[in-house]
Request: fold
Amino acid sequence: MKICMIGTGYVGLVSGACFADLGNNVWCVDKDRSKINLLNNNHIPFYEPGLKELVIKNHSSGRLKFTDDISLAVKNSDIIFICVGTPTRKRDGSADLSHVFNVAKELSKCVNKFKIIVTKSTVPITTGDKIEKILSKKKNKKLFEVISNPEFLREGEAIRDFRFPDRIVVGSNNKKITKKLESLYEPLIKKGAVFFATNRRGAEMIKYASNAFLATKISYVNEIANLCEKANVNVEDVSIGMGLDKRIGGRFLRAGPAYGGSCFPKDTKAITVTADLFKTDLSIIKSVIKSNNKRKTLLIERVRSILSNKIKNKKIAILGVTFKPNTDDMRQSSSLILVPYLIKKGAKITYYDPSGKKSEFKKIKNVIYCKDVKNACYKADLVIIHTEWDEFKTIDFKKISKGKKFKIYDMRNLYSPQKMKDIGFSYFSIGR
Ligand code: UDX
Reply:
């Protein structure tokens, strides 16, 4: 099929490259010409495992094309996916839909024969209705159909999540259009993906309700971890014991620092704002947001007590600063609260992250980027494992500590407390 992705961020570029890899002809559009030039020279503007290879393969085959000319792409496509960002609006926490509506206005200028317009960006319930209104100001309603097809891609696993989704959700009241989307996703359905059709608002709601639920699950286990620490229980055992109940499920029950990323914080906030507009109080999700924000300071308290309140002049090594492994994304990472706090208290910080040096810390004095674990931990008083990159799972602490035994605060429970005690380390973790 002939499709176009408007927006070449995590959603548009990954989905576009994956659709091309399924044999479709895909245009990826971005109004930022410098981004398009980078892509036409096979430079990917962000880190996502496997994406560069996928883009190069499909770009060279001619199936995947990049342009800043939206009318060229729309003219050559039957299905138009809106994949632009919907960031949090500072003043009220709602989703900023200005990019989405600008695309809708652009489309109303260049749609001249029937097109399926699909929102793949995460958009609040009723956004499809608003896009339809914008389009019908300039275009006959027979020339387009606006539907919802939310993505469920995790950063760092986006290509796998595209290729092996648990479900493909399409929201449309038009059976013929739903069928068209079903055939676009046919190769994935054949491999076991469930195709679920509902109406447009239903699909918009499924996306937000899913993300808010996952955030709730994480905050739930994080609070249980707090209780486990007081009651001398191992939260890892609790997660396993709970997760064996199929109604609960074992995934997303790993206790850790507060959840971060560009989605959970944004989407939990946005759905509560939407609910308020509908005069419905989503008190559980509101408490999840509060609990997650509180957790960032709670863990800082823990660092203080591990250092017996003496942070000044302490050398602290932080392993991993991104919000999760296999991404370079720092958005809402708890390290963005932790590092400035420790610096303010007089600590000297070294950090190492496999995705490289972070601009977020460039302007902060006494924060030094090191090129590996050994250098970061050199003469440290405390080593904090903040992000669970694979290479942090097999550190030979004895070897790198060279006699001076630093304390370890493992925020991802990568190591066994008993084993660390046996090799003489003062080891702290989460919920154990
Ligand atoms: C999330 C959703 O998983 C995905 O379906 C949606 O499309 C986009 O938002 P993402 O934000 O990329 O994906 O990362 P995810 O793997 O969900 O992790 C989000 C945060 O939760 C990270 O900070 C991670 O460390 C944390 N997390 C995740 C936990 O603390 N414990 C867990 O068990 C799982």
About this structure: The domain at 296-428 is CATH 3.40.50.720 (Rossmann fold). The first helix runs from residue 10 to 21. The two ends are 52 Å apart (CA to CA).
